[in-house]
Amino acid sequence: MDDDGRYRDGRSDFVRGAKDIAKVAKKQVGKKMGRGVDKMTDEYTKRSYNSNNDGYYRNDSRANDDEGHSDSTEGHDEDDEIYEGEYQGIPRADSGKASGTDGATDAQAQQFRDLSAYESERRKDQDELAEQYETILQECGHGKFQWTLYFVLGLALMADGVEIFVVGFVLPSAEKDMCLSEPNKGMLGLIVYLGMMVGAFVWGCLADRIGRRQTLLISLSINSVFAFFSSFVQGYVSFLFCRLASGVGIGGSIPIVFSYYSEFLAQEKRGEHLSWLCMFWMIGGIYASAMAWAIIPHYGWSFQMGSAYQFHSWRVFVLVCALPSVAAISALTMMPESPRFFLENGKHDEAWMILKQVHDTNMRAKGYPERVFSVRHTMRCFTCVTVAYCSCFQDTLTFSVSLSSSSYYGLTVWFPDMIKYLQKQDYASRTKFFAKEKVEHVTFNFTLENQVHRQGEYFNDKFMNLKMRSMVFEDSLFEECYFEDITSSNTFFKNCTFIATLFYNTDLFKYRLVNCKLFNSTFLHNKEGCLLSDVSDENNAYMVYFVSFLGTLAVLPGNIVSALLMDKIGRLRMLAGSSVISCISCFFLSFGNSESAMIALLCLFGGISIASWNALDVLTVELYPSDKRTTAFGFLNALCKLAAVLGISIFTSFVGITKAVPILFASGALAVGSFLALKLPETRGQVLK
To answer: Fewer Cβ within 10 Å of end Cβ, the chain: N or C?
Structure first.
């Protein structure tokens, strides 16, 4: 019965303050309100509720000479006053209906205790409270405060975009330092998604309990700390753990940022400005790509402390990628908590202070510093009214998010892998073959690349100060040869014989020599490098940095279009339309048989599909009530990351085998997702529940 008691107290306060809401709200913000709000205030005027000093709005009637009453007397006319119990369905004692028996009164009261009627009343009150909060936001206006918060939360969203790209950019360099095998590299790529999956659920739930701002500060702090540590740790396991913890921290940014920002936005601004906020994810990707291109190739930016500790340029890049998160923390400390969260938890005075701050900041920026915030200091009519919301759309939204995530992330990872596969095919097609050659007394001091030598004989030859890239020597003889200062990648000697040969300061040892025979040969000062399979550093940098840069930049048109049209055509049309067009664009992948074609298709798909993601973010914010908003958003975002892991695993397994399965899977998932999207309720024009 505690909930019942709190509910009745809230209803009682609501009764006492409702008349002031109607009269003053209509004067202060009537011109800014829509027809729905006007209808609500007119309804309140008809009810003519009793009021006192705990009312919702401050009474300004003393300043109006045509009003014949003051705060202390307003609303106490006998003809205008109603009994509080009458609002609850209990007749007053002196009414004609009240002259009946006590049994009739008890029967009427019992009828209102019926569960369905009781829930209906609670839902009605919740809608009225939501309308009131919308009225307050209308009075506060949209201006400097919301734009400041936009950039602050944008930094947090930017940090999420950076986190997605960090591991992919550092892998080509980090694998050299850590000697990573292919399974280890794959795990390092997936660990970020797993961390973000856990973080989204944990921080989403926590934000509904301790507040949006505080939870976001904690999650970003964890991300910053472990991102910092990951740039210094040396071992693979410790680096893996730091990136996992960093992902857990940043996992809270998306569910909290959108919920937090939406609770400062009025209805007519919400869809557009939440879509503008999505652009910071793209900015994060561009920032990561640009920094990787500018920093990682500078191998001279490094230092060593003996052979045990190395700090190369890719570690500098990891440090730089933590800056958006650090900047977001610094800026967020100056921003207030969501007033909607305070109101839901009964902290009315704190909520009033924040709303007044929003109002005053916007009015000063617009040149109206004298405009007074008309909401009273104690907003007693607001109370936490928890209603069991309809869950009929939850499964639909869950399936839609899962399908979209698996197809989007799967294709996003599949594109670069396919480009890399096409690069390797093109590279292999240009391989030069040499058979049964005899080379004597020759010095090789230039790069040897993309060659296959079979059954060759090399006598008294010198290989000095050079790089060997994709070199293969098969069934060859090396006699009295000299190898000095050799660095190799994807280079092997298979079934070769070495006689009286010296290897000095080279990485041609153990795994480079496959089934080889050595007679009187010596290895001095070996460079224990790692087994690398990259085609070339130049190709790898081009694929990883430039292609990722183009892919993230390509979503800019989609972001702009979705922001401009979100409130005009609605969330469902945006979601379904974008999904359908993305589905159609998947079929063009069959024609992507070259590197340039795959890059163009990557840009096309990214630019189209971003609109559906923006629509999903707005829908998720508006479908769930305030006390469950970040929890629901966090759960869906966690599901999104899980679907991403599954999609990536499925899609990458078909690289170099067939295009048909990934294309059909992605197209089918997008088609089903667009169909399910049509089953969701349209939230355009609705106030936040």
So the answer is: N
